[in-house]
Design brief:
Elements: E1 16-17, E2 40-41, E3 56-59, H1 67-81, E4 97-102, H2 108-118, E5 122-123, E6 126-127, E7 134-137, H3 148-160, E8 166-171, E9 176-182, E10 189-192, H4 199-202, E11 207-212, H5 215-226, H6 234-248, H7 250-253, E12 256-259
Parallel strand pairs: 3-12, 4-10, 4-11, 7-10, 11-12
Antiparallel strand pairs: 1-9, 2-3, 5-6, 8-9
Helix pairs in contact: 1-2
Amino acid sequence: MHKPHSAAHSSLTASQPASAPASAPAAKPASAPASAPAAKPDSARASAPGAPPPSHHLVARDTTEPVDALLSFIAAAWALSSGPEPRSAATAFTGPVVLIDGRSGSGKTALAEALAEAWPGRAEGATLGATLPTVVHLDDIYPGWHGLELASAHVHDQLLAAAQPRWQRYDWANERATEWASVDKARPLIVEGVGALSRQNAALATITIWLELDDATRRSRAIARDGQTYEPFWNIWAEQEDVFLARESPASLADVIVDFTAS
């Protein structure tokens, strides 16, 4: 969840503002990723030409550990999407579109930034290219503590399905929507946040990632990150997550599940 009392996250590759947004701090560089863990294919999801590849389950100790494996999966999915029978519906983006979802405190922001720092990646001769991805954080979009559903729809309507992709920043301190930021559709895109992985958003993505972490660790991390600002809203936000998960079943839509619970 977002820290309303602090500055908003910024994209590693900055979006072009539609109307002069306030400057955002640079993203935190990720440490060098450790060697990637082995992936375990899920045979329950059979692959077919033009269909999503089988899902994979990664067990990782921290957000840098699965980066190499994830970049390999992204490259493979991108090759499939660029083939004669692309897996995703039409989107204006001409590079890979990566969606990262998971409940609050599961490590989505850190993983997105680690992936962007490690870009480009190579896998079996396939390259993701040297163009850095734009990273969009749903924390910057949620219209307040009751805004999960609206932000999820915003990702689809204004970003993934739009001819001219853009998103609108929300000012948590003043509780109002502010400037629009346009997004370069020629660059790869990473979208992270609870609500990113809905059915309609997944249909426009190159690859989808779901993060798992036990509830106790998630809560302690989120409160430590955001302080007492988040504490009164934890249950309110969790209830919105429950509704979203029950309706969209994002874990079942994921091409890759990264499990941090065992760490």
